[in-house]
Amino acid sequence: MLGKGYKAIIFDFDGTLYNRNGINKKMIMANLFYWRYLKGLKEVREEMAGKDYGSKEAFYSAFYAAVAKKTKKKIYNVKKWYTNTFYSKFVKVLADHFYSRPKVNKLLYNLQTRGYRLAVVSDYDKIAERMQALGIDQNPFRCLLSAEAVGALKPHPKSLLAAADVLGTKPAATLVIGDRSETDGQAARNAGMGYIEIIEQFLEKTDKYVWRDFYQKIIDHQ
Ligand SMILES: [Mg+2]
Fold it and tell me: Is residue 67 domain-shared with residue 104, that is, in the same domain?
């Protein structure tokens, strides 16, 4: 599986390092008072996907303005909700209701010991806090990077290329592990990186993996 001369592995976070099924419902329950913001956030992020806003600051100002327009709320209030409430609820929902993939820490240390440089690249921020909420060890990672922080959501390749830059590997020697073809897979292709997809249910005649099989292949060095 890792036989193509890869030196670095970049993991997506949501849906890759944990099963995200049911998270939308849990986030709505946690943001009942702010459901309009949450709906606006989802729609706006879909519209912003794949576009490069140039910087973190430019990304956030475009994001807050677009959510404010969609929800007919003030930009100030959208910003306040996103920075004070949204992420703390996100972390709490993960801590209360979700679990990392089985033996994920063992897999990460196995890869690190074998010399792979590891990173997490997520469209969403607060990666360290979210990892902690799920009990995922940060030590094996040399880089935790959000697409928000570079101003371009996937499938734009900017966040993946920035992470590879930190890891010091060329795109061709970098493998992306994700759960969504249209964002993670496309971003990896746009960056010239390899790609493996994690799915929840085994499908025949596919090159995608359920976590259990992915884990076993990595551990067995297949
Ligand atoms: Mg994902």
Answer: no
